[in-house]
Each structure stands twice: as C-alpha cells, then as structure tokens.
Amino acid sequence: MSRAKVGVSMFYCVGESFNRMVKRLGTMDTKYIELFDDAAHDLNKARILQLKEAAKSYGLTYSIHAPFSDVNIGSIIKPMLNASLKRLKQSLINASAIDAKMWVFHPAQRTGIGQFYPDADFKNMCRNIEMLFAQAEELGVNIALENMPGKYWFLMSTPEEFRRMYRETNLPVGITLDLGHANLEGQIQPFVDELADKIVHIHASNNQGSEDQHNGVDDGSIDYVAFIESLKKIGYDKTIIVESITNVPQSIARLKQLLA
Q1: What is the residue-wise DSSP string for 11-49?
Q2: How far apart are CA 65 and CA 111, in angstroms?
Q3: pTM of the model
Q4: Average of pLDDT values for 249-254?
C-alpha cells in the first residue's frame, strides 16, 4: 500500500539569503522540497537554473508556494488586483520551468472597505481562480488552493466555503490542507471527513489553537497520531510538507515514524 510522502518547506529559512537556502537542500532528510517564491527567495531564471542543478544532484522533487506577501486575488481595487495577478502568473511560469509537481496559492483576504461591497471579494476570487487554473493547465502545472484562518480576515477557512467555490467555478482545483490553519478554526476533521477526495497536498505544523505559530509537529494541540490514522483510512498517498519554523528535522522524522 502506498504511503504519504514527507517533505519540507524552505519557508523556515526565508530570512536567509537564497544561496544559503540552496546549500541546505542537500542536507534535508527528504527529497520532497517546497520552495517559497516570495521575499528574498523570489525565483528568476538564474535561480531556477541553480535549483534545477540542485534537483539533479540530490534527486529532489519540488513544489512551489506562490507569492502571498501583499497578494490578494479577491481585491476589489483594480491596480492592486492586477499587481497580484501579474505576480502569480509569473510564479506559475516559474513552477513550470522548474518542473514543480504542485503550485500552492492563497485565497482572497477581506479588507476594511469590503463591507461596502458584500460578496465582491468572493466573486472576484472565483473568477481569478478560473483564470489561474486555465493558465496552469496550459503550462502543465497542478495547483492547489490553501485553506486559511478566518481570524486573519481570509476567506476559505471551512469546507462550506470550498464547496461554494466548487459550485461557482465548477473546477477540479485541489486543496492544500494546512493543518495549522485548520486547527485555529477547529476544522481539521471536517476537511478530512467532507473533502477527502479534494485534498492533494498537506502543510504540517502545530500551534496551541490561538495563533499560527508554525511550531514543530509535536509542539501544540494538534494530535498527529490521530490525524495520521485518519489519513491512512482515506488512503492518502500524496505529500505532507513540514511547514514548521522550529524543530524542522525532528518534525520530518516524527511524521516518517507515524507513517511507517
């Protein structure tokens, strides 16, 4: 029986230089690497060549986390929305160039002015998911929308919102189940119970249920023993990416132990 594969996000070292991050790739106890296409680790042609060489040297398989700093695919302010979409379209091109197996992106975020335009952010988001999906298909890139915490003004924090998005777009967009985010909303098990067939990628970290701390997997209120048992029951055999910023090697080892 196929088991889920444990990988790691390089988000934990985004404060370091890009070159230092690349040097870390060969030291990780996994071949599944999620790159962070944002901030100091923005991808470009030269960096993509570096990363392709690293993949060849170390036998790595990449996924890409799309830019999310100041990006909002539901913005009702056209210049801001256009800037967000331009950035995301380039990231999809980067993902194709590096042969990434998954491109993870964030949903819309509410703004202070949104209350005067009820539901506009959700409808904008759906239209732009359709546009991004079409570009991804042209480029041959798989994409997955990440659930986010409502407490930080994001949409898509519950299975109900995802079901609405599926109704309005009629697209087979996968879900990146972020366990830390779902824990803040008490939604881990509902996602597994209600949308198991849509979950194609997982972000693993932990927290105490109040803030998105990105702790190691054993440091918080998420019961990973129970969660992994749930994954086994639904036959999940895709990637679980450690997205912790503390105890990263220990988290990789722990998930591998639980999946064995």
Answers
A1: GGGTTS-HHHHHHHGGGSS-SEEEEE-SGGG---HHHHH
A2: 23
A3: 0.97
A4: 98
